[in-house]
# Entry
Amino acid sequence: LAMAFRAVNSRRHIGLQQLSSLASAGRALLGPMKSCKFVVDESTNQSVLICSALRLIESLDLTSAAGQLLNETIQAQNKEFKTGMSTLLFLVGAWSNAVLECLQQNVPVSAIVSVMSEGLNSCCEKVQCLQISVCDVNKELCSSSVRPGSSESKTSQIACDSFLNPQIFQCFQKDISASEEFVPRNSCSHQEAGCNFNEGLASPLASFVSIASLVKSVHDKSTSVVSGSGVTASSCKQKNLTHSRYFSALAQNHFSSQLGNSQVSLSGQPAYPCECYGLEHLAMALSHGNQPSMELLKSIIAYRHERAECTGSSQLIIAEIVTCCLPGLPESCSCVCPGFITSVSPEQARVIKYFGDKPLRILLMDGDLTEQYRHLGFTKPRNVRTVLEKPRLQEGRSGHSWLSNMLDILISSGVNLVLVKGSVCENLMERCIANNVLVIGSVPQNVLCAFGEVTGAQPVTYLAQLNASCLGSGAWVELWKASDGRAVELGDLVPVRIEARGVRLLTAVLTTAVASKVQLVEDQFWTLVYRLHHAVTDGKVFLGGGAVEFLCLSHSQMLAEQSLKLANNAVQEFHSPWLVASSTAYKSIVLQALASGWTQYLSVVMCNTSKAASQFEARTLIDHHLRKAAGCGSPSAYVLKEFRRGGMFRGGSVPLADDREGVKVCDNVTAKTEAWRRALDLVLLVLQTDAEIITGLQRNQLLKSHSSNEFMFL
# Structure
């Protein structure tokens, strides 16, 4: 009877099963080496290539309530971070399966919700020790790229103390106290020939210190430096460590540099020997092998650096970056150009040739340029019919009169260029072309603001509001030219460039010979841009290559083992299992279920990146690292050491076209942790909703059976 109840209970949790089914479609989208998918539109038979969870969810027919909740969750993650959607989608499926397994073992819903939430919060606190300062990433990766020598031991060494924040030392102290391992005061002996640590150290802290890079920095003029320990050859006998910011309070000012929430400041950066302008190496670490987008972002950083030398302003703001997709050209034609680049029709291109090089009077419109458009607040309901709005105009001639009036306003004002945020009436567009007035629609809001600042134009909602003070001047338009200096025409589309003196706009021209790949290329570019933006906003990044997820897995299993020991001790004390509190008895099961989600995540990433041939091989390797981390005594130190050696699963470095050694991989902090929380919150919400539905059905069935029994008794 109990087995039948469990089967019915799990089968009725339809929402969790639907989440698991939907999330399984995005397994190939996890990790840096994604397997793209073709989405075919049945109505038009056109296909689009996608590699993001956002595009996948948008293309699915989500009719169920669970599917709608999943879509809203992914849309919220994309709206705030523009990254982390694939991680969110996968963890939703992994933890949905884990919760179903807990239900199979008769774990109460309340215990699942509370323990899983506490477990994830504990994991988020634990991985704080794997955060790296953005300044340290730039400095150390920059210095490591120019260090002399060709061997791997010389080119890939990165100082431990520069790659960690002060919290990791606290984590080491917690690991040491938890395992009750202490370091004797006389265990570190300094020899006459040099500063070498005693090889007999067995504590986790000693293992961390022993992996410090014993290399000399290119900027250091001293005779000998031990990176990570702060002990110099001239001060081996000093008792206090005065050169390490983690053992001394004198260097806390190193972390006091603050960057803006919405902008990246390049001013005040040191002279980097590799001319990366302070952000290139950070962008490489966040690119996850996306080399084409990395080259574009590198050009954007270089443009801003050049402008800083000329104008003194070196802020890189996302609102000043736009994209222009040009299908039909090879990907090698992708580039970054100043100004605003867009595509127009050949008829509009003839108007641009008519303009030549003369400056234009520009008009900005913050809405649609159509007769039916009304701004928000004056949009009339559809079920209201207007009997007569303009008494002096007949109904048959109202459209013609509107076109004539709008054209008269533009011509009388001397407007040459109109940038419209929304759509443009086609008939008005044709009349404007005939009168040498260039009207461009679907212009982003940030482009309107940028041209308004430098030309003096003020956006208007309707042409009837136009007056002389609303117009701007100093803009010009030209045909966009490729790298070879020739203008490009792509059938019905002609790329043009709109420029004005002092405008702070950069357009990333994204080209591809495959039309179905346009959306994919644009998504990849913006993902990298926002990763860099969030990294600078947070001021820190995570170790990549699965290091953070592995530490979450190790920590979850440790919590599960501790809970199991507490439950066993309670059973032995009271000599009866039912006296043990339910939260303690079920805590180990739920934490193991939470850990299974991390295991699935790591194994799928390893298979997608060809680090493992099968799920079995991946799990075997994960178990091997778990045993080594447990034997090390400090999982945090073990993760750090493996990351410096090339990644936890040899996926911590991304090979580049011009760098054999590769670049360390990093991940965003806030975007990743919020993806975890959103995934678990969605799973627990669907779990509780299903439970309420099941409870209501069972109550109705019980009432029906009770009433039927009373009727039979009567």
Summary: The two ends are 30 Å apart (CA to CA). The longest strand covers residues 472-479. DSSP finds 22 helices and 18 strands in the chain.
